[in-house]
Design a protein that fits this description.
It is built from eight helices and five strands. The chain is α/β, with parallel strands linked by helices and about 170 residues long. Helix 1 packs across helix 8. It binds shikimate-3-phosphate. The site of shikimate-3-phosphate (S3P) has 10 residues, from loops. The site of shikimate-3-phosphate has 10 residues, from loops.
């Protein structure tokens, strides 16, 4: 079986589902944001505040390219990975792209009080989430070859659903 790549908005559960799914499939789990933080020796917050979002996006693409050599992994991406067309093409070459789709309300709940995501460290974060989601949702749908509705499902249920569809 090929690599499984999880895409979706911040707070959609890519990392927690990815870990459980990797366990079930007995595969290694790779979290792109963790790889970036380890490799760059900086948090995502630090990369954004020191160099800006554009620079982060360049780094993100270079870490994505590194995944082209991987096989049989479960990979969780950052929510903005679909913003570049070139990244989507790479994702599709890496493996099966799975979109974890959920409602605005549930994302809002999951992201409440978040301190790790630089794009949300502002007073109007609810508005930011709404705007980003409106812009990105069609892109996630287009980029994915599998779409999983995750609202009101446990991480375990979501992982089982993906496994049964692979
Ligand atoms: C981002 C999502 C984050 C991280 C960065 C930017 C985004 O990953 O890559 O903060 O633009 O949606 P998660 O989706 O894992 O939170």
């Amino acid at each position: 079986m090929n690599n499984v790549i999880l895409i979706g908005f911040m707070g959609s559960g890519k990392s927690s589902v990815g870990r459980v799914l990797a366990d079930k499939l007995e595969r290694k789990f790779i979290d792109m944001d963790d790889e970036i933080e380890l490799g760059e020796e900086k948090t995502i917050n630090e990369i954004f505040s020191e160099y800006g979002e554009d620079h982060f996006r360049e780094i993100e693409t270079s870490y994505l390219e590194k995944l082209l050599t991987k096989k049989n992994k479960v990979i969780a991406t950052g929510g903005g990975v679909i913003l570049k067309e070139e990244n989507i093409a790479i994702l599709k070459r890496i493996g099966t792209v799975v979109f974890l789709h959920t409602t605005f309300e549930s994302l809002l709940k999951n992201l409440q009080g978040d301190t790790k995501r630089p794009l949300l460290q502002r007073d109007d974060s609810e508005e930011v989430i709404r705007n980003l989601l409106n812009k990105r949702e069609p892109i996630y749908f287009n980029a994915a070859s599998m779409i999983i509705q995750t609202t009101d499902k446990s991480v375990e249920e979501i992982a089982n659903e993906i496994t049964s569809l692979l």
